[in-house]
Write a structure and sequence with these properties.
450 residues, alpha+beta, Hypothetical protein af1432, five-stranded antiparallel sheet, 17 helices, binds fe (ii) ion
């Protein structure tokens, strides 16, 4: 069964890929479609209907998951996301012509499919009856992301206040909020990642904790972790700096460099943090380890000092990477925020010494070239912020335009999906050229996100 499903997905995928090279009638397309059809018909004897779709950010064909490393995954996943399809259901009676119609429809340029009313409409027009398309509900997820993000701020605030009062809070609320975030991340990580670029300036400590938690969750999901393993990385991210409640405020808030004595105090926060969470109810042991080691570098320098015999938790490096990325992209009293692309450049210089090079590259892959919340300049000279990155073509995301070509602030930001319509105000093509720093244009970065 598994082998048959994999083979079918492969055939389906090669037909899709060949459509960019050959006309639809070419045997390079008709042959794999015919073979895929034969296999699906055979599979119907065991399972009817058959569903191909994205569930929890994994491409599933029936119950067989395809992970990132498969080229199959990229081809089909990219097209489903691009056409905003959650799932495709094949049912008994499926004709080969119907499968051909589906392959042709999926191979359409997104803007062409949209002009025709979407893939479902294209198939209906061709009287396809045995294939059903379910669309993604993107708007709902953005609202849910916002709601859980706001709630997580309260959760972290409460945990820190309890700790400051000398009490040990339960980890249950943190667990609850992380579980919900995991769910949102698996459905659409970009909805939450966009919010990590909000960067509230006043409540840095809380916002930073939440951001690191979200980045850790998205990264853990990208690495293929699920369930408790994934949540543990998120919890560690969210609570990585709790030990700082035991550090004097003057040291934490001090702008510029610390004296040696202050530094020694500061360096205690991972040990203190691990000790705190180990006393909190329902925080998994792996999270304690990640918190303890989030300042241990790839070359095992950093702090606390790690004995040779001790193994470093592999995901403490995930926390370290997320921590570094969030700090670099945040406005601090002593530092301008950097766009994602610049932060990545800087972090690559730390690879091999401070950061694990392989994990860093995987993290960068998870973010994409222009992550949600990145400010960009377009070919039209307009300035906007990325709402939803495009997994097929990074230059054509969904973007909110804030400054028009002449340099003036628009009275109302304009939200456009460049995948669907890339025509600029004067009829020219509108694409992303590069990331940019909102500060240069006097834009408050937080104002236009979420
Ligand atoms: Fe830290
Ligand atoms: Fe931190």
């Amino acid at each position: 069964m598994k082998e048959a499903l994999t083979q079918t997905a492969k055939l389906f995928c090669s037909a899709l890929r060949n459509l960019s090279l050959y006309p639809p009638s070419h045997p390079a397309i008709s042959r794999p479609v015919q073979q895929a059809h034969e296999r699906i018909v055979a599979l119907f004897k065991e399972r009817d209907p058959l569903v191909m779709g994205i569930i929890d950010d994994v491409l599933l064909f029936d119950e067989i998951p395809f992970y990132e490393t498969d080229s199959l995954w990229k081809e089909i996943y990219g097209r489903l996301k691009g056409h905003q399809i959650e799932s495709i259901t094949f049912s008994g009676g499926l004709a080969q012509e119907e499968l051909t119609a589906l392959v042709n429809a999926l191979a359409l340029k997104i803007e062409d499919a949209v002009a025709k009313g979407g893939i479902a409409a294209v198939l209906a027009e061709q009287r396809v009856e045995h294939i059903k398309i379910k669309d993604l509900q993107e708007e709902d997820l953005r609202e849910r992301a916002r709601e859980v993000y706001d709630r997580s701020l309260t959760v972290v605030f409460d945990i820190m206040s309890e700790l400051r009062m000398g009490r040990i809070p339960s980890g249950e609320t943190a667990n609850g909020v992380i579980a919900e975030m995991s769910d949102v991340v698996l459905k659409d990580k970009d909805a939450l990642l966009a919010l990590t670029m909000l960067k509230g300036y006043d409540d840095y400590t809380y916002v930073h904790s939440i951001n690191v938690g979200i980045l850790c969750l998205a990264f853990a999901a990208h690495q293929g972790l699920r369930g408790e393993e994934m949540r543990a990385v998120g919890l560690a991210g969210m609570l990585h700096d709790v030990g700082k409640v035991r550090t004097a405020e003057e040291i934490i808030k001090k702008p510029g460099s610390l004296t040696e004595a202050e530094m020694a105090i500061m360096k205690k926060h991972p040990v203190l943090g691990a000790e705190i969470v180990s006393r909190m109810k329902s925080i998994p042991h792996s999270a304690h380890e990640m918190i303890l080691m989030h300042h241990v570098k790839y070359n095992l320098q950093g702090y606390p000092t790690i004995e040779k015999s001790r193994t470093v938790h592999p995901y403490s490096m995930a926390v370290a990477i997320a921590d570094c990325y969030d700090a670099l992209t945040t406005l601090r009293p002593y530092q301008k925020p950097r766009p994602a692309t610049e932060a990545v450049k800087l972090m690559r210089r730390l690879a091999g010494k401070d950061l694990d090079p392989d994990m860093l590259e995987s993290f960068v892959d998870m973010l994409g070239t222009y992550p949600a919340g990145t400010y960009v300049r377009l070919t039209t000279n307009e300035i906007g912020v990325i709402i939803t990155p495009n997994h097929l073509d990074v230059t054509l995301p969904k973007v909110k335009i804030i400054i028009e070509s002449g340099g003036a602030l628009l009275p109302e930001p304009l939200e456009v999906d460049l995948l669907k319509d890339a025509t600029g105000p004067g009829g020219e093509r509108r694409e992303v050229v590069a990331s940019t720093n909102p500060i240069l244009y006097g834009i408050d970065p937080a104002k236009y996100i979420g």
